[in-house]
Amino acid sequence: MEMETELRLESSLWVGNKRYRAVLSGWHFNWTEVDKKNRDKKTISVPVAEVVGVEEGRVEILPRKSVEDTDKDFTVFYVKRSSSGSSYGLLWRLGRIQFSCPSRVLRDQWTKHLRTALKTHSPLRPNRLLVFINPFGGKKKGRKIYHSLVAPLFELAGISSHVIVTERANQARDHLLKKDLKGFDGVVCVGGDGMFSEILHGLIGRTQQEAGLSENDPTVALQPCPLHIGIIPAGSTDCVCYATVGVIDPVTSALHIIIGDSQPLDVCSVHQASALMRYSVSLLGYGFYGDVLAESEKHRWMGPLRYDYSGTMVYLSNRSYAGIVQYLPADPLLSSPRDRTRCLSGCSVCSRTTERLFPHSSVYSSHFNQFSSDSEGEWVSVEGRFRCVSLTCMSSSCPKSPLGLSPSAHLADGTGDLILVWDTHPLGFLKFLYRHTSTQDQFDLPFVEVHRVKAVRFSLPSGKEEEAYKETGGLRGGIDEEERGYIETVSRNGSQQHLAERDTGQEMTNEQKMATPFLCGLCCSKVPAKSVWNCDGEILSSTEILCRIHGQLVRLYARGIEEGAAVHNCGKENDKCQMGCTLIK
Ligand SMILES: Nc1ncnc2c1ncn2[C@@H]1O[C@H](COP(=O)(O)OP(=O)(O)OP(=O)(O)O)[C@@H](O)[C@H]1O
User: Fold this and answer.
1) Where does the record place the DAGKc domain (predicted)?
2) Is 174 in the active site?
3) Distance CA 567, CA 355 (A)
4) How far apart are CA 306 and CA 298, in angstroms?
5) Quick one: the chain helix, strand, coil %, rounded to 5?
6) Which pTM does this prediction carry?
């Protein structure tokens, strides 16, 4: 309390010839225009934690930095929000205001108080950052994005950065595993999801090395990483950035880094027997998503289009795979994947998890052993044929699927959502896929299950069971009336028709013949007995795996999707969507 009264400051300040009443108190700095008759006009209020910097004189940073060093002026840079132009996400921009004071003494008092206030209210602001730029990520603009948009902001905020432009894949990971990291507060990656994954593996590995823990043992509670990770999006897929910030925008991300925002993130470790294979934060998928990745790798020359192309091809190949899925359910009293909540900035489910995982004040000093102290609970086992088996530690929303694979999943609640899509008719599966692009509930289908879990094991059934399936040839779930109507509608529009006919052995139409060269690799060859795992965009080399979610293992310079930022596309302005979030323009 004393600190807050100490920091209070109020005076008249001028911007040009307009007089303002400026107040710094507690968490906010605000200024109100006062007209000639002493009446208050509009107030602008900025949380002190969102003040980017305070400079003496009249300062500009764009198009380049210039300082007019006057005695009675000071400039405040702060975070200003603006619409992203599309229906979701808010952009952060650098706001700037130049105040004049009646005296130099008052000016110095303002700059001193503001600087003290922002240190007090945002203690995690970085002083020194290690920056890795992937010069080949996305449209190969990583270097330009960093130097023209990000570096000037870091400089303004007084952050010193050590920049490494990578010359090979895994250089950033190896650097983090081996080199001296003393003095750095965080690691910034300029690139896409692949580059983020390198940083993730490097930092987690380094932290375990230093703690003397084995990453290979899935029962070990891993040590959370002390360094924050910042993501400057510059890749062709920037899903982690999108899911944790709400927009894919380098300036927005740079401002989150500068003010030291902190967003914990769950990480899933994927093991084969007793060896760590990889870490995952977004999608771990077998069946459809594995096949799409494997197929798209063959068509890299197509660029980003290859995902749409491969998705269609894999869909048309109409595959399902036998498997045994075992999972360890999370506490159903804490949350559920179908509770229609969304994990937004300041999420209460994630905050409660932070209190549970780190019961003492310092986040890193006392890591709660989640696996041995939690009662483990009972594993559940299911077996059958699946279109896909997916595990996601976050909603995995992206511009194409604004609500994501699991709309109510949390970034940092120590759990993942396991989505089981049982074998079904091709058009039922199409309906499931299609629902990801709308606000319709993709789990409300008879062949789909979703479970909130702490761990998952996947294995292949023995050969005998596979044979038995072929003899009875049954599908689980069946087709309901609504689906039947849907199937008929879709079947009529040409390209899908041959799917239904292929099984009945009918002659191919010309249209189908034309499609054949594309389908050859997928349909005409013998259907493989197993798929591959897609682990955040990488193919895993083994099929039988054990996955374990580690609550809040890393922290990002982000704050989650801000409340008010729209995360749905039902299209109605100022309307409430199904998920209870409001669209703002
Ligand atoms: N200098 C480099 N040369 C080649 N590869 C690199 C280099 N630096 C990083 N990489 C690798 O490039 C991969 C892709 O990088 P990134 O995620 O930044 O871009 P992207 O365009 O989104 O990738 P993707 O091809 O997965 O869509 C990463 O796996 C990373 O390990």
Assistant:
1) 124-274
2) no
3) 27
4) 9
5) 30, 30, 40
6) 0.84
